[in-house]
From TrEMBL, chain A:
It comes from the Bacteria. Residues 262-414 form the NADH-quinone oxidoreductase subunit D domain. InterPro entries: ComplexI_49kDa-like (IPR052197), NADH_Q_OxRdtase_suD (IPR001135), NiFe-Hase_large (IPR029014). The keyword Flavoprotein does not apply. Keywords: Oxidoreductase, Ubiquinone. The lineage of its organism: Bacteria, Pseudomonadati, Pseudomonadota, Alphaproteobacteria, Acetobacterales. GO terms for molecular function: NAD binding; oxidoreductase activity, acting on NAD(P)H; quinone binding. This is Formate hydrogenlyase/hydrogenase/NADH dehydrogenase subunit. Pfam families: Complex1_49kDa (PF00346). It comes from Acetobacter cibinongensis.
Automatic annotation (TrEMBL), chain B:
One of its GO terms (molecular function) is metal ion binding. Keywords: 4Fe-4S, Cell membrane, Iron, Iron-sulfur, Membrane, Metal-binding, Ubiquinone. The keyword Membrane applies. InterPro entries: Complex_I_20kDa-like, NADH_UbQ_OxRdtase-like_20kDa. It comes from Acetobacter cibinongensis. This is NADH-ubiquinone oxidoreductase. Residues 38-148 form the NADH:ubiquinone oxidoreductase-like 20kDa subunit domain. Its cofactor is [4Fe-4S] cluster.
Length: 499, 169
């Protein structure tokens, strides 16, 4: 069965790429997906229906919707592993049950909230647990045996809160499971019936390190819902902010990997380079973490006319510092040998968890949404060369992407010239739109439905869900001392997971 | 969460009476807990610790356990799930001890006010010894705030043009 044709055979909706299926057709869809490689993006609920989004070609979306019957729907997780996380989130927030789901453990609601099923038509009472969350191991973890240990949610480090439970055999991890939800801020509820400008500010705080990617994707979704698209000047300014964010986040990650690998000098050099770039950029852009610069209808930069000059200046800094950093990374005694072969995410695992971004590129995956984005015409080029999928490969890919982004900034600078940027006033018509950006860890996607000038509902796709599954899958067999190293190299961030 | 009574004792200052059984009061060791935010404040704290801000030279460091810390440094809007974790960290710290909130979320929830999962920051819930506002504050602003505890000025950053008032994060 051709799954794409099957979805197209559903009942058309007001949104040209979304089709309504009945329950039998939805079940056929799940069966069809088991034998089809159609890229799955995400699953969400709006209280009335569930919606599954796919990306058959490049950035062309295709969605299937199913009205909830008796608060239940057939799960997609038997066909797409990552869907289990969406199904668990939907149950926690709406109480909608995924039938035949592969995992029914709570994801973010651990019986501590002020009300359960907060987005359901009739929310439940307050949770009864007022103490620290207790980890309930799955049957698979119990079967793994060994000594149990755990890491987080408060480790004293600067990472966001996540608990990783481990079954150990000496120093070797036999099995790993995570407990999420510590950083759940209720984003889905906050975005509901929210003013568009306020929603944009919230998306900028979804997860630090990908603020610009989230806001760029959200803004594109809002603009698409309004039937507007931005001109080349604004698009290029957004690209500059996105690439600068990528450089900053990658250097931050590289510093974390190097530090945990014992290469303190390399870590220090990465952070020093990052600070040099941000010290130049922040006064002109207006912030260090690229928050609130992509706004619906345009950009909001402190000194937009200086962006062209800034790009050239950052590229100059890159030419001065980057080659030495690469040499240092490659030649630092013991660094490469410490990382080689660690935490391998191979192509089979990538396909299973649906992971994209630099982790997938380091494992041989050919996925980068920038190639399909018009704003990157003349800027993006395929560079990925590593494909063994280990921490070392991921680190080298990140390092290469830093150089590539700096090259893009160098090319973008003269194009921008004294470009003023600015924004147009959008008339928020009722409708749905979708927006995407290639964030530092992969594609960030927003689906937005506008109604009465507000965001009626929004869905966020961040690579974090797939990263979490990849982390749980690669940890068995690894030394427990490498846990932080592997986590950092996969970009597992609780803020993005918990929403 | 039970009420945290933070007593920021004068013993933090050099030369004052020290109430802790062991260890010098210098540097001041901070135990960081992210109680549920976007992670931006954590990134800026990492930049402060690992960048060229000379945090150690100013007399501050990060502790890896609450047992070895002097101050609980909190970022994030405080979720119900993290409240017991925060309380456990506080109880594990030796006295005298204090609380520092970094970022608007930790102070009053910032963009994440109270809802079914968020308690909305620590303001009016516990005694806070130092509030460092911002969304998020820059590393230099955090260092300036920390140094203000002792009435001293923060050392200059190693980057030309970096200053506490240049920009927000």
């Amino acid at each position: 069965m051709d799954v794409v044709a099957h979805i197209h055979a559903g009942q058309p909706t007001e949104t040209p790429w979304r089709f309504q299926l009945d329950e039998m057709a939805w079940r056929d869809l799940v069966e069809g997906l088991k034998h089809d490689s159609l890229p799955f993006v995400g699953l969400w609920c709006d209280g009335v229906a569930v919606h599954a989004l796919f990306m058959p070609h490049g950035t062309q979306p295709l969605a299937a919707s199913l009205m909830l019957e008796g608060g239940r729907y057939p799960a997609l997780s038997p066909a797409r592993a990552v869907s289990s996380l969406y199904e668990r989130m939907i149950f926690d927030l709406y109480g909608a049950e995924a039938m035949w789901a592969t995992d029914v453990r709570p994801l973010v609601d651990h019986d501590v909230w002020a009300e359960t099923m907060p987005l359901a038509a009739a929310p439940g009472g307050a949770g009864s647990n007022k103490t620290m969350l207790t980890f309930q191991p799955s049957e698979a973890m119990q079967a793994a045996g060994g000594v149990t240990a755990g890491s987080g949610p408060a480790s004293g480090g600067r990472e966001s809160p996540l608990h990783i439970a481990l079954a150990l055999d000496g120093d070797v991890i036999r099995y790993a499971e995570t407990v999420t939800g510590y950083a759940h801020r209720g984003m889905a509820q906050r975005l509901k019936t929210c003013r568009v400008e306020d929603a944009n500010r919230l998306t900028g705080r979804y997860v630090a390190g990908a603020c610009a990617a989230h806001q760029a994707a959200f803004c594109q979704a809002v603009e698409a819902a309004c039937g507007e698209s931005m001109g080349p000047e604004v698009s290029l300014l957004r690209v500059v902010v996105l690439e600068l964010e990528r450089v900053s986040t990658h250097l931050f990650t590289l510093a974390g990997i190097a530090r945990q690998a014992g290469a303190v000098l390399v870590a220090s050099r990465c952070m020093w380079f990052r600070e040099k770039l941000l010290t130049e950029a922040a006064p002109i852009i207006g912030s260090r973490l690229m928050m609130d610069h992509c706004v619906p209808g345009g950009v909001n930069l402190r000194t937009a006319a200086a962006m062209g000059e800034l790009c050239s200046k950052l590229a100059e800094l890159g030419e001065e510092i980057y080659p030495d950093l690469v040499t240092l990374w490659q030649s630092y005694p013991g660094l490469s040998s410490r990382l080689v072969g660690l935490g391998v995410v191979d192509s089979a695992l990538l396909e299973q968890v649906g992971l994209d971004g630099p982790v997938a590129r380091a494992g041989g995956g050919d996925c980068d949404y920038r190639r399909d984005m018009r704003a990157y015409d003349g800027l993006w080029r395929f560079t990925s060369g590593r494909h063994d999928g280990a921490v070392e490969d991921r680190a080298i890919i990140l390092l290469e992407e830093v150089g590539e982004s700096l090259r893009m900034l160098n090319t973008a600078g003269p194009k921008l010239g004294l470009s003023a940027g600015g924004r147009i006033d959008l008339y928020y018509e009722d409708g749905e739109g979708i927006g995407m950006a290639e964030g530092p860890w992969g594609a960030v996607l927003y689906w937005v439905r506008l109604k009465d000038g507000r965001v009626e509902h929004a869905f966020v796709r961040d690579p974090a869900y797939s990263s979490l599954l990849a982390l749980e899958a690669v940890l068995p067999g690894q030394n427990v001392a490498d846990l932080g190293l592997i986590r950092a190299s996969l970009g597992v961030t609780a803020s993005a997971l918990d929403g | 969460m039970g009420l945290i009574r933070a007593v920021f004792d004068a013993s933090f200052r050099q030369g004052s009476a020290r109430l802790k059984p062991v260890g010098p009061r210098w540097p001041l060791l901070l135990f960081h807990v992210d109680t549920g935010g976007c992670g931006g404040c954590g990134m800026e704290l990492e930049a402060l610790a690992a960048g060229g801000y000379d945090m150690q030279g100013a007399g501050f460091g990060f502790a890896s356990t609450p047992q070895g810390a002097d101050v609980l440094l909190i970022t994030g809007a405080l979720t119900y799930a993290m409240a017991p974790v925060l309380e456990a960290a506080w109880k594990a710290m030796p006295t005298p001890k204090g609380v520092i909130c970094v970022g608007n979320c930790a102070i009053d929830g910032g963009l994440f006010p109270e809802n079914y999962t968020i308690m909305g920051g620590l303001n009016r819930k516990v005694h806070i010894n130092l509030r460092i506002k911002g969304c998020p504050p820059t590393p230099q602003e955090v260092l300036d705030g920390l140094c203000s505890l002792f009435g001293q000025r923060a050392p200059a950053a190693a980057y030309a043009g970096a200053s506490s008032s240049s920009t927000s994060s």
